[in-house]
Amino acid sequence: MKIYDFIVKDIQDEDFSLSEYKGKVLLVINGATGCGFTPQYDGLQGLYEKYSPDGFEILDFPSNQFLEQAPGTNEEIVGFCKLSFGVEFKQFAKIKVNGENEEPLYKYLKSTVDETKNDGTDKFYQKVKGYTPGIAEKDIRWNFTKFLIDSKGTVVARFAPTVTPEEIEKYVIELLQQNNDENNTETVCSSDFSKGCI
Predict the structure, then answer these.
(1) What is the pLDDT of residues 148-172, one digit of tens each?
(2) What is the pLDDT of residues 28-70, one digit of tens each?
(3) Which UniProt keywords apply (predicted)?
(4) Structurally, how many domains does the chain consist of?
C-alpha cells in the first residue's frame, strides 16, 4: 500500500485523491492553530517556499484531538494560517488521528515507521501525558507530528512534534536529490537506451 491509495477530504469537504502527488516528496502533518507548536507553521512555509519548485509538498490535516487546539471551521483554520503565517501549502478538512473514527490515512501512516525524536521529545511527552490517556504505542501523541514520504509514496520517517521544520530540512533535501538523480538516470535511459544507463 502507498499513500497514493487514499482519498481524503479537502477544505471544501470534497474528495481528493492523494494520487495527485505521485512523484513528489511529501511532508504530512497534523496541524493546530492554538498549540505551543503552532509557530512551526512559519518554518513549514519556509520549507515549502524553498523546495516546492523542486517537487516538495506539505499536506496539513488539522486535528482538534489534543486539548481542542484546532477549534473553528476548516475555513477559519485556513484563514488563520494564511493571515498569521502566510501558509500557501495544501490544507485539508479537520480529521481524527487516533481512536474511533480516525482517518484511514493516519491509521496507515502510524503503521509504517518508528518515530524520530530530538532532545526535547521525552520531556515534552511527559509534560502532556496527563492530557492523552489511553494513547497506544503507535498513536499520534500530539499536534505537529510529521511524516516524510519519498517520491515513490513510501513513508521514510516520522518526526515527533518537537522536531522542527529546520531540523527536517536536510532530509527533504536528500529525498529531492535522490528523486532528481533517479529522474536524470531515467531520462538518459529512455532517450538513448542503446548506449545503456549512465
Answers:
(1) 999 999 999 999 999 999 999 999 9
(2) 999 999 999 999 999 999 999 999 999 999 999 999 999 999 9
(3) Oxidoreductase, Peroxidase
(4) 1
Cα dihedral across residues 142, 144, 150, 152: positive or negative: positive
Q: For residue 74, give the H/E element and its range.
A: helix 74-85
Strand 90-91 to strand 56-60: parallel, antiparallel, or no bridges (unpaired)?
parallel
CATH number of the domain enclosing 96: 3.40.30.10
Q: Which helix (H) or strand (E) holds 76?
A: helix 74-85
Cβ-in-10-Å burial (0-12, 13-18, 19+) of 87 comes to buried
Does residue 35 have an active-site annotation? Answer: yes
Q: Please identify which residue in the block is written with the cell numbers 510529521.
A: 146
**Residue listed under C-alpha cell 538518459:** 188
Task: Say which of 35, 81, 189, 197 is annotated catalytic.
Answer: 35
The predicted model scores a pTM of 0.91
Rg of the chain taking only CA atoms, in angstroms: 18
- Whose CA is closest to 28, among 98, 84, 129, 105? 105
Residue range(s) defining the domain that contains residue 95 = 3-195
Q: Which residues contact 175 (CB under 8 A, 6 or more apart)?
A: 25, 148, 150, 151, 156
Whole-number Å distance between alpha carbons of 7 and 140: 20
